[in-house]
Every structure is written in C-alpha cells, then in structure tokens.
Amino acid sequence: MHSVSISASASASAIASGGARSKAAAGRRPGEIRFCGLRGDALACASLRASHAAAATRRAVLRAAASANGAAGSGDGFDYDLVIIGAGVGGHGAALHAVEEGLKTAIIEGDVVGGTCVNRGCVPSKALLAVSGRMRELHDEHHMKSLGLQVSSTGYDRQAVADHANNLASKIRSNLTNSMKAMGVDILTGFGKIVGKQKVRYGKVGFPEKEITAKNIIIATGSVPFVPKGIEIDGKTVFTSDHALKLESVPDWIAIVGSGYIGLEFSDVYTALGSEVTFVEALDQLMPGFDPEIAKLAQRVLINTRKIDYHTGVFASKITPAKDGKPVLIELIDAKTKEHKETLEVDAALIATGRAPFTSGLGLENINVVTQRGFIPVDERMQVTDADGNVVPNLFCIGDANGKLMLAHAASAQGISVVEQISGRDHILNHLSIPAACFTHPEISMVGLTEPQAREKADNEGFEVSVVKTSFKANTKALAENEGDGIAKMIYRPDTGEILGVHILGLHAADLIHEASNAIALGTRLQELKLAVHAHPTLSEVLDELFKAAKVNSGVSHSVNEPVAA
C-alpha cells in the first residue's frame, strides 16, 4: 500500500477547474483534503462529527437541491453543473450524490437505466444463485437429515426461475429510475458523445440530436462481455453471460471458458440445476485472480465435489455453435506452444473470459484522448488524461470504462469521489479498501492484497508480513447451520498492526468482508480491532478470531498518525 501525502495548496490547484462549491459544502474549506475511509479523528472528517442540527440542515439542502435541479441552468452559463454519460450503478451513485451537493445534474442513457449490473450482471445473477443455493440445500440429503429434516423430492420450473431473475432486474431498474427522478436528476435518453470542451451531444438513432453544455462531465459507460477471436456467438448454444442470465435452457453438458468470478458463479447455477460442467482455463490453475490458498480450498469445495471437470493451460482457439444436429465444437490449443490438444463436443458453451470497456463512439478524438486497450486513461482522481499525458479539465471517467477496478460498487465509489472533488473537496479513493465477492455456495470474498502480493510488497519496501487463519468449524453459528466448510485468512504487518488483506471462503463470506474492508479504509489498526465486541453466536466472530489471533509488536501505538495507502 502506498501512503498518500498531499498538500492543501496542491489539492486546491488540482480542483481549481472543478466548479464552485455547493451550498451543501459551504462549511468546508475549498482546499480541504478528504481521503476515502481514513479515520475521522486523525484527518478531521467533518462528516463523522456532524451534529443532529447539521443533519437537519443537510436534509433541508437536499430538498432544496431536488426542487432546484430542474431550473433553467447551472447559474454559470452552462446547462448543467454535471452531465453523466451512462446510467449504470456508477452513474446513478454519482448523480444522487451530485444532487445532494446542490449540483444541477443530468444523466444520459442510451440503453436502460441500471447498466450491466442491474440488467445483465450482478442483480439477475444473484437471483439465479439464490435458486441454486436452495436447490443445493434441498438436494443435500445428509445435510437435511443432520438438521432433522426430510425432503421427499425436489425440482424446479426453468421459466419460473428465469422470470424470478428478470423480475428482480425490472424491480431494481425501476427503483433506480424513481430515485433519480425523485431527487430531480434529469434523465436524458440517447447515446452521449463529447463534441468539445464541456459540450455533449446526445440522441437516438434516426432522431435529431441535442447539444448541451456542462461545467463537468463524467463518463460512466461501463463494459460489455469480451469475446476472444475465433469464437462464434449465436446466443443459443454459444453465448455470453448476457444471454445466460435469461436461462432459456439448461444444457446437459456445458463448457465454461474462464474460471473467474463469472465462470464460477455460473458453474454453481448450472450444476445445481443438473448440468455437467467443463472449465476451460488459459492459465495453469483455476481461479487465477484469487489468493492461491483460498483458490485451492475453493477448488476442493466448489469443483472437486461436483460434476465439474477442467482443462487448464489451454486456449479455446475456435468455438463453433451447434447446428444441423451437430454439437458445439471447441478446439483447444496449448496456451504456451499453441499446438492443438483436443476437440471438445458439448451441448453449449458459456464465454466467461472477462469484460471489455464500452468506450467507442464517445467522441474522445474531439478532446485528444486515446484509449489504452479500450480503457480511458485517468489519474488517481479519475480525471481523464489526454494523449500527451495532460489532465483534460472538467472531464472524469469512472467504473469499468477506466479499468481501475471492474466492480459495480467501485464505479459508484469513484463517482461519489468525483462529485466530492467538483464540490470543492479533494478526495482520493483507496481502491485497496474496496471488497469483492463471488456468490457461490459457499461464498468467497476478499479485500486488499493476496498473500503473494503482500510478500512481494514487503520484500520491496522492507517490512515483515504475518498471516493468521481461522476455520468456520470453530464458529458456533456456522456449526449450528451445519456449514463448517470455510476458512478466513488475514495478512497484516506486525510492526504497525495494519491489515494488508483479508480473504474468506465460507457461509455469508460476502457479508462478512465489510468489517475488514472498512478497517482498511478507515485505517483502523489491529490493536483497536482486538478490543471490538462481536455478538455471540454470530458469523462475525470469524473476523473476531482473526483480529485476536494477530500478534502485533509490543509498543506499537493504537492511533493512526498518517494516511494509509490509497
């Protein structure tokens, strides 16, 4: 983790072009630095010490901002204080925070509100995973008998399952739309394009375009499934996660190309519904993005015990959809030598090889911005940089389009961070404090560095690393649920008590990780966390065990005297 040190004068200079302070920000100095998630008592975060009276004032400001947002202009000769291109989770989070700060805000969406996460990603997939979790529990006769339960038969209605996912997406999409309308955000329909400094043109295909001006612009266009060359998508037998979430069929045998988050979650769904799965992974081990120890344990629990086999160290060089009575054909080549290894014949293939930024057609050439592998280059404040490495004034990019961390909640956090800046408060987001989760059964979650990453950093910077672990088998609540398969692992610095990373495999791991992520964000040290109280019996005691097991060098101060890594 890199420490951050920024002078007030430098921060004021960095945001000089970011717009006037809002009424809601009137109580703070223009150059005041705010670090995401650093301890309020150490860095004087006013929001953490706000009184009830200040909260009442804030609510009044919000009501005024919402009503004023439909006014004729921003008051500075612009149509809007902020225009956001893209109404996904990132754009939505930025829009609401902007209105809270008194900024006249518009959001442009060419597809549907909610973006990938709500419509084709994390939201509908969780609906399918909820079904797979119930199916696994009902099918586990030993687990049921151990709880004294008897289940005579289980089954599912494929269309009803698909409808559950679709209905959830529709509900959340409606909620997002209504929340923006209620706050006074102008929702503009069409595809947005930057046509010059602080100018955006938008419109639907076949209809006249409109041009608006904005004091600040945020690009939040997200991403699309990445499909490697040689793979033919027909949407029926060879498809991406976009198609899979519709659950139009449950194939007897499906190959999943890629064993990351997307591939793992869909393997959980398909095997629970009766499919056999074959993973095709280009790297030498499954789950390459996870902490190696966690990945090894996860493979034992999530793959080896299920109807799943796998091929590692191979590329799917060519995939042909099923047609004329022939199955899907997958040609595998060695990842290193590129020599042909074998050809798989399966009923379907899901391409889960990651995502690519959706940044074409944005008019970036009009402002001398060149993408890097499709990603829009930004600095640590999400300010877009041009081909010469210079910051483009008043232009920001958040979320998947910048490639810093392709997670929906990271996009939202980046958007809020940008709004803080254009409201007159410098703000740097600590990406190492942002958690991630894989919603398999059991779940996997993580925050910060993996053990190899932490040890490499320690070698380079000259400090010691320690690791502590605890098993879910030692947790009363997990045992009460008969869900003892799981482990939690923490990597930390014994010389300072700083948490470097936490990784969890087990029941509700996705919910448990936030205590660790907030500790990293707030700079809370293990010396303090050891004294925290957790209700008994709860799964939260898994983290409590980690904190108490950590051995911090004697004499280390409990307080945080400097910012942690950003």
Helices, strands, pairings?
Blueprint: H1 8-14, E1 33-35, H2 40-43, H3 52-68, E2 80-85, H4 89-100, E3 105-109, H5 115-120, H6 122-139, H7 141-146, H8 158-183, E4 186-189, E5 191-196, E6 199-203, E7 210-219, E8 223-225, E9 238-240, H9 241-244, E10 253-257, H10 261-272, E11 276-281, H11 292-303, E12 308-312, E13 314-320, E14 328-334, E15 340-346, E16 348-351, E17 355-357, E18 383-385, E19 391-397, H12 408-422, E20 426-428, E21 436-438, E22 443-448, H13 451-461, E23 466-471, H14 476-480, E24 487-492, E25 499-506, H15 509-522, H16 526-529, H17 541-549
Parallel strand pairs: 1-20, 2-3, 2-7, 3-4, 7-19, 9-16, 10-11, 10-16, 11-12
Antiparallel strand pairs: 5-6, 6-7, 8-17, 13-14, 14-15, 18-19, 21-22, 22-25, 23-24, 24-25
EC number: 1.8.1.4
Family: Belongs to the class-I pyridine nucleotide-disulfide oxidoreductase family.
Function: Lipoamide dehydrogenase is a component of the plastidial pyruvate dehydrogenase complex (PDC).
Q: What is the subunit arrangement here?
A: single chain
Helicity, as a percent range: 25-40%
Class inferred from helices and paired strands: alpha/beta
Spans of 5+ residues with little confidence (pLDDT < 50)?
1-72, 559-566
- The coarse overall form would be globular
Please give a structural write-up:
The protein has 566 residues and is of the alpha/beta class. It folds into three domains: 76-225 and 354-429, FAD/NAD(P)-binding domain; 238-353, FAD/NAD(P)-binding domain, CATH 3.50.50.60; 432-549, FAD/NAD-linked reductase, C-terminal dimerisation domain (Enolase-like, domain 1). It is 32% helix and 23% strand. It is built from 17 helices and 25 strands. Strands 2, 3, 4, 5, 6, 7, 18 and 19 form an eight-stranded mixed beta sheet that branches. The protein has a five-stranded parallel beta sheet with strand order 9-16-10-11-12. The protein has a five-stranded antiparallel beta sheet with strand order 21-22-25-24-23, sandwiched between helices.
